[in-house]
Amino acid sequence: MSKEEQDKDAIIAELIESNAQLTAKVERLQSMLDAAIKMLHGSKSEKLDPAQLELLLDPEAAKKPDAADCDQDAPAADSRRRSATPSCARVLKPCR
């Protein structure tokens, strides 16, 4: 074998070794990336409130009550606003 062929074989062997090392590094980094994605978006990242399950099992509980079913003693939302006058104007009296 000539010197030139020996140099080519050495270069090829070096490239094969380098390729194997890089392939191993890519596989290690890919597994680390997969683990990070699983931690971020995996099944444990989605917490489920037990009350949400009750809504699935009993859809009637999720419905809002009708107006006729509401408590009559509860104040209406509009009763809180008695006038358009600001409260400070009612408290303060003009000086004469």
Question: What does this protein look like?
Answer:
This protein is 58% helix and 0% strand. With 96 residues, it is mainly α. The longest helix has 39 residues, at 3-41. The model has no long low-confidence stretch (mean pLDDT 76).
In short:
By secondary structure, the protein is mainly α. The chain has helices at 3-41, 50-57, 59-62, 87-91.
Task: Please give the count of helices.
Answer: 4
Major sheet, described briefly?
none
Task: Give the amount of beta strand, in percent.
Answer: under 5%
Structural class by SSE content: mainly alpha
What string gives the helices and strands in order? HHHH
| Strands, total number | 0
Report the C-alpha radius of gyration, rounded.
37 Å
Large-scale geometry:
elongated
Portion of residues in helices?
55-70%
As residue ranges, the low-confidence spans are none
Q: What is the distance, rounded to the nearest whole angstrom, between the alpha carbons of the first and last residues?
A: 120 Å
* Mean pLDDT across every amino acid position: 76
List the helices and strands and how they pair.
Layout: H1 3-41, H2 50-57, H3 59-62, H4 87-91
Which descriptors apply to this entry?
mainly alpha, 96 residues, elongated, 4 helices, 58% helix, 0% strand
